[in-house]
């Protein structure tokens, strides 16, 4: 499947906008105490994106999505700075939540909950991960302890969640809970809720190594949250299936955005290495430096190829769980190498906040964990190898 000229034109438009209008915001002091951009800053940038015609660029005005290969060329450009994805409304968790609601939600739910997200007027949160001390759902959603039970024409949800990205300040929530209803056979349910809600309490917002996402990663207590039955997303008991519908493309979208950021870090490090002189010649002419940047070139190209391959699989209608796991591992580890080398090339300057290079190092380090740590994906792939081996005997 080829990438349309429409998508390529949008990607070029996004890149021009991000470079011209958003790069200057990188030193803007409007940050919360976790270091994330404030909602005031985000909304200011989104008005610029709206005026430039690049707000939510991966979704057409008629509500249809570009395919995954086309989305990749657009999201990579929006990720050239962490602020770019916020300005263009392609950031996590909203991009993944828009994808899920668009694929599973009823027309009524789309109008009520999806529309304000697509318009960039609201942020959202996905309530799945649970505290490790409770042995709740993390990389393994089947361990979910948060419960929901039917009560008339409502469902009542109780439980604890953690690392809920963007919960603080979000207007739309997708709550995932394990059903106690016999008809659901112990499956999970997903619900759309308006936020804030007094039954969903933020009990803490820890400081984390990454700082690009407004609202950070909150700890949550859900106490007798009553949700009308018509706000269930899809069917009762099918939540784990819907999680896979969301998670495979979401993992890939993360790869797209952070690849854009590492491409930018490579630009900055390469520029520095060509300007800085030491020991009688420019840094890039020292093999120890030039080879690091050359290795980054190779890793960047390999990331592009992996993303394009996985996107092509998803475009066939496959869930792509194996392909997205392989891509998430390969790309996140490669991006870590790229970011680390960029810091090393720039020396002291590379660990300061004067460029986004140190930001990308922190963000990519976190990426190796969220949406499934590298080791969990490798374990899943090893299980497949064993299944395939047994089937071949």
Automatic annotation (TrEMBL):
InterPro entries: Acyl-CoA_dehydrogenase, Acyl-CoA_Oxase/DH_mid-dom, Acyl-CoA_Oxase/DH_mid-dom_sf, AcylCo_DH-like_C, AcylCo_DH/oxidase_C, AcylCoA_DH/ox_N, AcylCoA_DH/ox_N_sf, AcylCoA_DH/oxidase_NM_dom_sf
UniProt-listed SUPFAM superfamilies: Acyl-CoA dehydrogenase C-terminal domain-like, Acyl-CoA dehydrogenase NM domain-like
Cofactors named for this entry: FAD
GO molecular function: acyl-CoA dehydrogenase activity; flavin adenine dinucleotide binding
Gene Ontology cellular-component annotations: cytoplasm
Pfam families linked: Acyl-CoA_dh_1, Acyl-CoA_dh_M, Acyl-CoA_dh_N
Top-rank lineage group of the source organism: Bacteria
Domain Acyl-CoA oxidase/dehydrogenase middle: start-end pairs: 125-205
GO biological process: fatty acid beta-oxidation using acyl-CoA dehydrogenase
UniProt keywords, alphabetically: FAD, Flavoprotein, Oxidoreductase
Domain Acyl-CoA dehydrogenase/oxidase C-terminal: 237-384
Subunit-level organization: Homodimer.
UniProt family annotation: Belongs to the acyl-CoA dehydrogenase family.
Name of the protein in question: Acyl-CoA dehydrogenase
Species: Novosphingobium fuchskuhlense
